[in-house]
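lol so apparently i was supposed to do this last week
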Amino acid sequence: MSAVWAAEGLVAGVPAGTVLRSAVFQLSVPSDAPDQTTCPRCAAAMPRWFVIRCGHCGHHFGALGGLELVTAIVLGLLFGRFGGRPDMLAFCFLGALGVALAAIDLSVQRLPDRLVLPAYPVVIVLLAFAALTGHTEGDLGRALLGGLVLGGMYLALALLRPGGIGGGDVKLAGLAGIALGWLGWPTLMAGAALGFMLSAAVSLTLIAVRRLTLQSTISFGPFLLAGALLASLAVAR
Ligand SMILES: [Zn+2]
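anyway here it is w/ zinc ion bound
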């Protein structure tokens, strides 16, 4: 891991987190509801960008600095791992998008198509660009196949056990599978396994402390994303 790149990622993550804030704010609504554009407390109009606090009643949107902090950590790790490589852009784009998706999923249990679906062509183009320019461990064909494999695996799980894994998780799994497949089959398998292990560990802990019952469902997106992040970071150069 390159310390200089990691430091740059940390610094870049703070403004990036502030930009993500507006998407998280607007899309943290039930799937059939219109975008959130007004303050949840006093209903005053919120700014289009840089949604930090309501200018009317002072209500802070979300934990102060939380999104910026998480984005800074994620981008710091990804810059450190991928810094200077041609596939860096694809992974940093996915890292930032992943933070926004995890925040939305935790707040309203959905992964909006409007963020997930356009990310497919963006990531494929960025990886195709990386494949053309550089010497990396990446392989575009394997990436596309990885998307099919992980997306297919989640689709099978969603069909087997309706109510657990949802359609949003399946579409996100396809996207994560492209990134993990690019890095190799062991990374893809590790990412998939880590997602389920993290979800099981957190669910069991919450059941143990009685914050959750066996019948509860919790958002799976953040675990899928965290597993994919850890697996992408863990591979040796
Ligand atoms: Zn307000």
